[in-house]
C-alpha cells in the first residue's frame, strides 16, 4: 500500500481504543480452562465484529487485562518450582500477552470472516516504560495485590523466603494476606511506532495486554521489572499512540456510579463534562482498584485529547458508541 493510499485510509478512519475487563476472558465462577476462555473471547469478539459492521469506518485497537491468567501461571510455577525455574512478573506478563492475544486474534478473525469483513488482526508483545523512581517502587508503597491469598503465618514465611512485600488486604478473613507489587504509572508505549503503523494500515491490533510488560531505563537499556501496570491507564497511553477518536472501556457494569453498592446509588448514564467528573473522582466516589482507575484513565484521555471517553458494559458496546448507553465523559 502506497503512502497516498495510507493517508486516504487514515483520513477516513474513526479510531477506537477498546479496553476490555477481565470478564471478557474469564468469568468469576469459572476455572479458566481453554474452552471457557475461548468461549468468552468468542462472545467478546462477536461484539468487536458488530462494532465494525455497524460502521465500517471504525478502526479498532484492543487492550485487555490478564489478572486471572497471570495469577494461575504464577501458581503453576510455584507448584513446579523444585523442577522448573519460576519466572518473574515481566516474563509472566509476556507469556499471558501471547496466550490471550492468540485467543482474541483467533476469535476476532473468525467472527469478522463470518460477517464478511475483510480485516486482519494481530497481537503485539508490548513493553510499557515506567519510571524506576515512581513512588510505587519506594519502601512499602507497592499497592497491587497479585497471586494467592494466605494466612498471616504463610504470608510472613513467604516474605522471608522470597523477599516479597506482603499485606493484609482483607482483614475480615483469616486468609486475607497477599503479595503486593508496585503499580507504577505508565510513561510511554515502547512499540508505539509499530502499533501506529499497523492501525493506520487498517489492521486490528491487540496490544498492551495486562497493562503492558513493565520496563525501566537502566544503563541505556530497557530492563523488565517486577511490577504490574494498571491496564486502563496503559490503555489511555495506547489511545494517545493511535490518536483515538474514542476511548471505550468495556466492563461488567453498565456505567460508572455514585454511591456504588449503597441504597442511594446514582447511575451516571449519559454525557458528563470533564470538570464534573473530576469533582466526583476527587470526592472518592469511585473505588480504588475497580472503577477508580477506569475513571482516571478516561479523565486523562479527555483532558489530553479533547475527545470522548466511555465506560459501558460489554453487551452494550454498539449502543454506547451510538451514545445510547454508558457513561460518556466529554470536555
UniProtKB/TrEMBL annotation:
GO cellular component terms listed in the entry, alphabetical order: cytosol
Aspartate/glutamate/uridylate kinase domain location: 16-313
Signal peptide: none
Keyword Transferase: yes
BP term (GO), one: L-arginine deiminase pathway
InterPro entries from the UniProt entry: AceGlu_kinase-like_sf, Asp/Glu/Uridylate_kinase, Carb_kinase
Gene Ontology MF terms: carbamate kinase activity
Alphabetical list of Gene3D superfamilies matching this protein: Acetylglutamate kinase-like
Keywords on record: Kinase, Transferase
Keyword Transcription regulation in annotation: no
Entry-linked SUPFAM superfamilies: Carbamate kinase-like
Annotated family: Belongs to the carbamate kinase family.
Protein name: Carbamate kinase
Organism: Pyrsonympha sp. LN-2016a
Amino acid at each position: 500500500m502506497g503512502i497516498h493510499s495510507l493517508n486516504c485510509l487514515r483520513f477516513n478512519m474513526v479510531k477506537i481504543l477498546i479496553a476490555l475487563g477481565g470478564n471478557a476472558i474469564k468469568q468469576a465462577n469459572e476455572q479458566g480452562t481453554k474452552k471457557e476462555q475461548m468461549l468468552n473471547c468468542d462472545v467478546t469478539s462477536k461484539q468487536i465484529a458488530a462494532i465494525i459492521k455497524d460502521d465500517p469506518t471504525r478502526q479498532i485497537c484492543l487492550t485487555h487485562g490478564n489478572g486471572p491468567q497471570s495469577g494461575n501461571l504464577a501458581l503453576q510455577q510455584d507448584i513446579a518450582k523444585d523442577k522448573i525455574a519460576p519466572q518473574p512478573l515481566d516474563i509472566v506478563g509476556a507469556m499471558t500477552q501471547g496466550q490471550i492475544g492468540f485467543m482474541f486474534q483467533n476469535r476476532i478473525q473468525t467472527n469478522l470472516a463470518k460477517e464478511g469483513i475483510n480485516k486482519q488482526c494481530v497481537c503485539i508483545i508490548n513493553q510499557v516504560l515506567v519510571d524506576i523512581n515512581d513512588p510505587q517502587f519506594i519502601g512499602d508503597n507497592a499497592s497491587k495485590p497479585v497471586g494467592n491469598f494466605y494466612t498471616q503465618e504463610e504470608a510472613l514465611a513467604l516474605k522471608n523466603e522470597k523477599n516479597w512485600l506482603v499485606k493484609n488486604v482483607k482483614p475480615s478473613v483469616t486468609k486475607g494476606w497477599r503479595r503486593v507489587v508496585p503499580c507504577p504509572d505508565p510513561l510511554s508505549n515502547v512499540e508505539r511506532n509499530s502499533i501506529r503503523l499497523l492501525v493506520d494500515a487498517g489492521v486490528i491490533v491487540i496490544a498492551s495486554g495486562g497493562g503492558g510488560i513493565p520496563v525501566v531505563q537502566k544503563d541505556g537499556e530497557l530492563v523488565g521489572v517486577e511490577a504490574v501496570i494498571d491496564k486502563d491507564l496503559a490503555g489511555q497511553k495506547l489511545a494517545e499512540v493511535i490518536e483515538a477518536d474514542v476511548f471505550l472501556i468495556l466492563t461488567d457494569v453498565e456505567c460508572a456510579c455514585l454511591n456504588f453498592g449503597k441504597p442511594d446509588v446514582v447511575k451516571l448514564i449519559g454525557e458528563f463534562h470533564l470538570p464534573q467528573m473530576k469533582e466526583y473522582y476527587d470526592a472518592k466516589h469511585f473505588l480504588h482498584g475497580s472503577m477508580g482507575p477506569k475513571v482516571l484513565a478516561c479523565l486523562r484521555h479527555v483532558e489530553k485529547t479533547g475527545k470522548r471517553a466511555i465506560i459501558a458494559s460489554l453487551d452494550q458496546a454498539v449502543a454506547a458508541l451510538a451514545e445510547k448507553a454508558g457513561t460518556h465523559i466529554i470536555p
